[in-house]
Amino acid sequence: MYSTDLRTDKEKKSADQQVLDDAQLWDAFQARIDNGEVIEAKDAMPEKYRQTLIRQISQHAHSEIVGQLPEGNWVTRAPTLKRKLILLAKIQDEAGHGLYLYSAAETLGRSRDDMVADLLSGKAKYSTIFNYPAPTWADIGTIGWLVDGAAIVNQIPLCRCSYGPYARAMVRVCKEESFHQRQGYEIVTKLAQGTAEQKALAQDSLNRFWWPSLMMFGPSDSASTHSSQNMKWNIKRHSNDELRQRFIDATVPQAEFLGLTVPDADLKWNEERGSYDHGEIDWNEFWAVIKDGGICGKDRIRARRAAAKDGVWVRAAGEAYAEKQRAKEQAA
Ligand code: BYC
Fold first, then answer.
1. What is the mean pLDDT of residues 283-289?
2. pTM above the 0.85 mark?
3. Which of 22, 196, 217, 329 has its CA 20 to 30 Å from the CA of residue 256?
């Protein structure tokens, strides 16, 4: 498959030799991070840094790709031609995000084929949010508003992540997510300001997507295994709970503006903190969706396996064409 790892075999070998494992070299790497330097693909890095980036970036890429599925179901049922075009453009953007992210992960030495194989075998994680069903048109609005909204809050700090290829990919992704969030909020606005039935549809969708959207930020800080090291390495700039709180504070007024009710009886403005207090997230549900795939996990993997199988001829044709071009260039 196409690779963006541009290093020669010799360079890869020498990078392998540079894998930092003794304390002194770790300190030197940490000093670069503390100094705000950007780490590039050919730089020496601790093996754990490389592995945690491959883990996070590939999970992120899988989320973008699997995230197309609930929305894809609505392309043929979008209420107007304009809505259909906007939705198609958004879904196409998500494919592009997956591509940038797989490419960024490949610079760390893992092939896209291997990463995709992990997704298809069920080994790799992707965001729990995409294992929830989207049975109504209002859900397409809510996904843009809440899911892309949460993604922006989580991903803006990643534009300053210490790993250059990931940070640069995030800049473009965030710009596009911003359009996605607005188109989603616009759909929900139309419904909330429409008939009583339309407003009820919007409210029902908010009820179902609110808590799963909060789970997108990951487990609470006390249960997060990677946060502390990843913050030391400037991969993460803020903790899961900090970003979740930021999302709640930005989103509750948006729901209020639409006359919708956030489904949290404990939600209350805290004057002293200048922030909302909120109810307890059901972490049992979160871990169960990670473990068993929730309502849609099996369908999502089945759909990705079918796409991989149906796309074999496309990839073969692409490779044959590239080979033909190479032969032509060599002959010229
Ligand atoms: N779902 O130590 P923690 C989009 C896992 S796509 C599933 O806090 P970390 C869109 C975590 O992987 C947006 N698993 O981890 C697309 C770890 O397990 P492993 C996707 C989760 O990495 C299409 C364990 O729990 N965004 O917007 O420090 C259409 C412990 O967690 C989840 C990204 O991927 C979860 N929600 O922090 C529309 C952002 N949360 O790997 C929209 C990039 C946690 O040890 N990723 N886990 O087995 C990140 O920022 C971080 O990886 C996270 C987790 C904040 C998600």
1. 98
2. yes
3. 217
